[in-house]
Amino acid sequence: MASISSLGAGSGLFTNDLVNQLVSAERAPAELRLNQRQAEAEAEISAYGKISSALEALKEPLDALSDIDSMRAFVGSSSNESVATASVDVSSASRGSYSLDVQQLAQAQSLASASFADRDTTAVGTGTLSLNVGGTVTDITVDGSNNTLDGLAAAINDSNAGVSASVIDTGSGFKLVLSADESGTANAVQVSVTDSDGDNTNASGLSQFAFDGVTSNMQETVVAKDAIFNINGIEVTQPGNTIEGVIDGVTFNLLSVGTSVVKVDQDPDAVTERVQAFIDKFNELQDVVSSVAGFDSGSGVGGVLSGDSAVRSIQNTLRGMLTSIPAGLENSPIRTLGDIGITTDPSTGKLEFDESLFKDQLQGYPDSLTTLFAETDSGDGIAAKMAVSLDGFLKSDGLLDNRTDGLNKTLENISDQRIRLDDRIASYEERLIRQFSAADSLIAQIQSTGNYVSQQLAAIAPQSSSE
């Protein structure tokens, strides 16, 4: 704020304090209006942000319920989990009971060589080692760079032949151990040799590692086996103990020989949790709307967005969908959310949930519940429609985004008005200072003239008295 330190020196009337008071009085009404408008715009932006966040939170459970598999929650149980367990793919599983009689577990083959005095200095022979696993043959060249147990093990592991090699210290020597990567007879390992010494079958040189069905210079310490089990009286043979594809959507995990009954049943609790998540997020949205757009009739005070058309549009759209009947359910015993235990409290707009009724209807009419919520061949269910509507509200050029953009432009306009106000007040202050300085000078001149006249009169007065 501009000022002149000597302002008022001549008259004592037009001081800097007076200028400051007049400037403040001129600024205050306009600044108050701008502050109020800015506070209102910022409060509305915050309120729209809260609604947007609540809609985002609601969209997640809606997307889950929009999936056609949302009502298809199944769980597998085993009467003897030490024999077998089961996991379920909800997209393809169905109810069922399966009697298992596990007669043999699958296991991967292991071979062990003869004993060697050391692992990294004694030469084991040179030539070519051919590993046949499941009909795939991998040749490994053994030469002066790798013709020790350690070198041979490293070469086998680097070959990705479906075999793992290691060197074991038995306490009385070292042995090369080969283990098939996969269980089952089809993955058994055969080792054939082209020995540099010209004899491919004897127990010296590279041929001491031969194991090809004719020559067995390595010891089979673990025999390759397939899993053998009966399922509902039908014998099944598999190379592994994790059994997939025998029953659609069900994976059996065989753990030991014995019997067990595996059941696949619908899991109503899992489905109920999905629906409860939707209800919780919907009710949280109602709390947010009530806080920012509600009206307290007792105090006569409304929220910052009370009466806002955008909020009314969102609420009316969602509430309308809650009572809609999706295509394909016109003649179904389940047509609306009310038929499955989801009702609206008219005083709060919140949803109430009768879980017991829901679970009964889920057990009796799972396909109808899927149609009620999800996107199916019949059309979009309630959750699917809501999710689409929320996408429209939340998109970058959607209803909420447009409102927020408009308020941000209001804030920019207020900022511009503050700059113009500062310029106007500065000009007003300068004008006051000029006017007050001029008045102060004039008063100072008048005072000076008065003092001169007084002095002249005082000088004349004694002469008049002496006469």
From TrEMBL:
<dbReference type="GO" id="GO:0005576">
    <property type="term" value="C:extracellular region"/>
</dbReference>
<comment type="function">
    <text>Required for morphogenesis and for the elongation of the flagellar filament by facilitating polymerization of the flagellin monomers at the tip of growing filament. Forms a capping structure, which prevents flagellin subunits (transported through the central channel of the flagellum) from leaking out without polymerization at the distal end.</text>
</comment>
<keyword id="KW-0175">Coiled coil</keyword>
<feature type="domain" description="Flagellar hook-associated protein 2 C-terminal">
    <location>
        <begin position="224"/>
        <end position="447"/>
    </location>
</feature>
<dbReference type="Pfam" id="PF02465">
    <property type="entry name" value="FliD_N"/>
</dbReference>
<dbReference type="InterPro" id="IPR010809">
    <property type="entry name" value="FliD_C"/>
</dbReference>
<dbReference type="Pfam" id="PF07195">
    <property type="entry name" value="FliD_C"/>
</dbReference>
<dbReference type="InterPro" id="IPR040026">
    <property type="entry name" value="FliD"/>
</dbReference>
<protein>
    <recommendedName>
        <fullName>Flagellar hook-associated protein 2</fullName>
    </recommendedName>
</protein>
<comment type="similarity">
    <text>Belongs to the FliD family.</text>
</comment>
<dbReference type="GO" id="GO:0071973">
    <property type="term" value="P:bacterial-type flagellum-dependent cell motility"/>
</dbReference>
<keyword id="KW-0969">Cilium</keyword>
<keyword id="KW-0966">Cell projection</keyword>
<keyword id="KW-0964">Secreted</keyword>
<keyword id="KW-0282">Flagellum</keyword>
<dbReference type="GO" id="GO:0009421">
    <property type="term" value="C:bacterial-type flagellum filament cap"/>
</dbReference>
<dbReference type="GO" id="GO:0007155">
    <property type="term" value="P:cell adhesion"/>
</dbReference>
<feature type="domain" description="Flagellar hook-associated protein 2 N-terminal">
    <location>
        <begin position="11"/>
        <end position="109"/>
    </location>
</feature>
<keyword id="KW-0975">Bacterial flagellum</keyword>
<dbReference type="GO" id="GO:0009424">
    <property type="term" value="C:bacterial-type flagellum hook"/>
</dbReference>
<dbReference type="InterPro" id="IPR003481">
    <property type="entry name" value="FliD_N"/>
</dbReference>
<comment type="subunit">
    <text>Homopentamer.</text>
</comment>
